[in-house]
Design a protein that fits this description.
CATH topology of the largest domain: Rossmann fold
Radius of gyration: 27 Å
CATH architecture of the largest domain: 3-Layer(aba) Sandwich
Number of strands: 36
Number of domains: 4
CATH class of the largest domain: Alpha Beta
Distance between the termini: 81 Å
Helix content: 10-25%
Number of helices: 15
Largest sheet: 9 strands, antiparallel
CATH superfamily of the largest domain: P-loop containing nucleotide triphosphate hydrolases
């Protein structure tokens, strides 16, 4: 019988943009996964288009590398708190985690979140201080901050005795002592060092490989025990259907095997596994069977769900279900009923939207979809604005048209019947001259300052703010800080309702009729309105074309053309100069709208509109509410 393969499963965890995907690139480059002539892209694990555009990891993904005779399965996890449901499940499948911390920023709110999840699972992390070539690196202070974070999270003695490594992931370098890389510590913009994850000047990531093998024991041989395998992630393949992904705790699984599935409701059902896959490098390879400790993918069980346990047919023994944190935001997804509906989208009916949301539920367990009183509308709840906007962005790229309402915070009831709302921890870095403005705005939004410090002309503010208060604030923050401030937010807890919070104070300019915008009309409107449209753009009645300088809504006619005469007025017929129109990303549009407004999302355009398109209908509804 062949010797049992040595397996170690690791996850790379960190705050957004600390270098997780870049470190995984170095793992793959330096373990011979790629052919010598193979073209290699940066952040190869960020395979989704939106992940590449935004530079963030959204979906956790697996790969494996060989170091000597040890197979190391690597999981690249999301750093953003909106995708926390991905992180929570992954921790159950790994033996240790590499905690990546930026040498300048130090631990951030998401660092705290992902580390907390790993410590709760009893994992013993390895600390890697990344980007030590930064000019503003403060390595020793950051290590001290990480120690404080571990103690805040009640780490045990073994967890506190973590190994510390230092690295430049984009160069594929990890060292035991920062002095070993001193010759390369020349700043991020230096052209002498070519960006390459394959190592530099004789340095590579071998110290990290060695630390992993020394720090973490290979998975014990439990192949002879009855099968037990908990599904931690779901996948979907158009050809073979739903896929269950997870680590085999004990036993062996082989294709064609009949198994017992312990369901979430406590029942046990018999199912048959079709195919078994394992990871070899970046590829998913079919195998006849796989043993304990390995991360595998199985097909054939169409009703498998997160947290359910696949067991030996005769020994059904369920593992503890995986707890997924509840959603904090919801919005309504509706059929697009604007006058331009169906002009650019392929999927426009409620049946199409329903099927797409049901398909999303196959793999996105942090999402909840509920029916509403209307057959054309669905209530979709998620972990945050980014979580929901990524779904909407994917749908529009796939050819869907829909209208979405303003995000609403999901309230809870406390033990005494009191109303609780989600509170977020916010960390802001802003130039000193803008800090007063930011503090004033956050105080109005019921924020509570936790800490404030100033260094090198920048103020660092730590706040606890209700999620309601942060809706619509990001674009305001960018304007207030002239684009120089950074804001990181993370769900903190549910707390008592904080009272009314003022929302957008400006009214909007609403198109009076359907037509094409003219420069002449926009020139006359722009004196008191910040325009969202340009000449030549088609608009319809009820569409929002700009933001009023005052608090009330205003109906305008952006399609009005200049009367044609045979008289020339001196000076007035010269070229019209228009201010640049403000364009919205999807997130900015969702932040901007009020309760009586919608965002119309199509493959080609993102438009803002009133729920009631006709002016008379809006006036009637206003009288009813008064």
């Amino acid at each position: 019988m062949a010797e049992k393969e040595k397996i170690i499963n690791i996850a790379v965890i960190a705050h957004v943009d600390a270098g997780k995907s870049t470190l995984v690139d170095a793992f793959l480059n330096q373990s011979g996964v790629f052919r010598a002539n193979e073209e290699i892209v940066d952040c190869v694990m960020d395979s989704d288009d939106i992940e590449r555009e935004r530079g963030i990891t959204i979906y956790s993904k697996n790969c494996s590398v060989m170091h000597g005779d040890v197979k190391i399965n690597i999981v690249d996890t999301p750093g953003h708190a909106d995708f926390s449901s991905e992180v929570e499940r992954i921790m159950k499948t790994v033996d240790t985690v590499i905690l990546l911390v930026d040498s300048s920023e130090g631990p951030m709110p998401q660092t705290r979140f992902v580390l907390k999840k790993s410590l709760e699972q009893g994992l013993n992390p390895i600390l890697l201080i990344n980007k030590i070539d930064k000019k503003d690196a403060r390595i020793d202070e950051v290590v001290d901050e990480v120690y404080e974070l571990f103690m805040d999270l009640d780490a045990n003695d073994k967890q506190l005795d973590f190994p510390i490594l230092y690295g430049i992931a984009r160069q594929g370098i990890v060292v035991y002592d920062p002095k070993d890389a001193e010759g390369l510590t020349v700043g991020e913009g230096d052209s002498k060092i070519k960006k390459s994850a394959s190592g530099h000047s004789g340095l590579n990531i071998n110290p990290l490989f060695e630390t992993i093998i020394k720090h973490c024991e290979t998975y014990p041989d439990r192949d002879d025990e009855p099968l037990q395998f908990q599904v931690s992630t779901l996948g979907y393949d158009d050809y073979i259907g739903r896929l269950g992904i997870g680590r085999i705790t004990r036993g062996r699984v082989h294709e064609g095997q009949t198994v017992s599935v312990c369901k979430a409701d406590g029942s046990v059902v018999q199912r048959k596994i079709n195919q078994v896959f394992v990871y070899r490098g970046l590829k998913r390879m079919a195998v006849l069977e796989a043993g304990s400790g390995d991360i595998v993918v199985v097909s054939g069980i169409s009703d498998i769900s997160i947290g359910e346990t696949i067991c030996d047919e005769k020994v059904p023994e369920a593992m503890e279900m995986i707890h997924i944190e509840e959603p904090t935001l919801s919005m309504n997804f509706m059929v697009n009923k604007s006058p331009f509906a169906g002009n650019s989208g392929k999927f426009v009916t409620s049946r199409h939207i329903r099927e797409r949301l049901e398909k999303e539920l196959e793999v996105n367990v942090g999402l909840i979809v509920e029916e509403t009183n209307s057959t054309d509308s669905f209530k979709v709840s998620g972990r945050g604005e980014l979580h929901l906007s990524i779904l909407i962005e994917n749908m529009r790229r796939e050819g869907y048209e829909l209208a979405v309402s303003k995000p609403e915070v999901i309230m809870r009831r406390g033990e005494m019947g009191e109303t609780l709302e989600p509170i977020e921890e916010v960390v802001i870095n802003v130039p000193d001259e803008y800090s007063g403005t930011v503090i004033g705005k956050l105080n109005i939004r019921k924020g509570l300052m936790q800490q404030m410090s100033s260094e090198n002309g920048y103020s660092k503010l730590e706040y606890l703010v209700p999620t309601r208060g942060l809706l619509g604030y990001r674009s305001e923050f960018i304007n207030d800080t002239r684009g120089e401030g950074t804001m990181v937010r993370h769900f903190h807890s549910f707390d008592t309702y904080k009272g009314d919070i003022p929302q957008r104070t400006n009214g909007v300019a609403i198109a009076q009729e359907e037509g094409v915008c003219t420069g002449y009309a926009l020139f006359n409107i722009q004196e008191r309105v910040q325009m969202f449209v340009e000449p030549g753009v088609k608009v319809y009645e009820g569409m929002i074309v700009g933001m009023n300088s005052r608090g009330d809504d205003m109906v305008v006619n952006p399609c009005k053309a200049k009367k044609v005469t045979n008289m020339r007025a001196a000076g007035s017929d010269e070229a019209i100069k228009l201010s640049p129109a403000r364009t919205f990303t999807l997130e900015e549009a969702l932040e901007f709208i009020n309760d009586d407004e919608l965002v119309e999302v199509t493959p080609d355009d993102i438009r803002l509109r009133k729920k009631l398109l006709h002016e008379l209908d809006r006036r009637r509804s206003g009288r009813v509410y008064e």
